[in-house]
């Protein structure tokens, strides 16, 4: 568990630093880590951040980015017989990708207990929040993120995450459809519609390829 | 230490959307079973969204960003997250300095 908590530290630092570069105060950046606690959607929010913040667009993009949590909580929820009802819901509030992955592995080996889950999730959460705060405070001193390339940190994180989703040619079709739709929408539509356009095109592509496979089979 | 009301509203809205996705799975398993087709569609959303977010930066911002995205993607096949991100940041900073983007 310790490596997981250590690994989240630099990502939290980078989040705080880039949030500072986008003009968020330390309080605002830390509050986002406290309340949202979903790195991917926080990264996306920084990418599309405007002044004043567009709450509808940000909530919609957070919903899209975190929709995978529906599957994760459905899956891990079936493996929590040792949890009381309220404990189960409380556990879900701290369901980050890494926590989920570790809990799934644990549930495969032994009985998943609330104590074990809290021992994993609570330190992870605290480190994420504190690292965001530290990064935000340090970020104000780092200067222009464009010169240091730090503004590219989030696109780079996304690129790595996208590669992690790679499962062969079908993924390629999803990514190609999403990229094409996103670039077109970005050129011709205002705001963050390009994210919804890319998501819709990617889902359409996966449904198309699965139907074609069924037709061949 | 300032808290802009628009920013606060945006953070709360993001938090609400995130809580919704985390709780929805628990509620879902009590009422419905997810079929293979729905599962495929849900699984395709995260990579599609992430790709949509990076596509404008990667493809139409400038050669420095395109180069750095390719470098990061290649590095990601061999190296852990942080190393690949560090390479991406390094490449974009050097490329901007050289090309002047």
From TrEMBL, chain B:
- Keyword hit for Membrane: yes
Sequence intervals crossing the membrane: 6-29, 41-59, 79-99
Which UniProt keywords are given for this protein, alphabetically ordered? Membrane, Transmembrane, Transmembrane helix
Annotated Pfam families? AzlD (PF05437)
Descriptive protein name: Transmembrane protein
Lineage at the top is: Bacteria, Pseudomonadati, Pseudomonadota, Alphaproteobacteria, Hyphomicrobiales
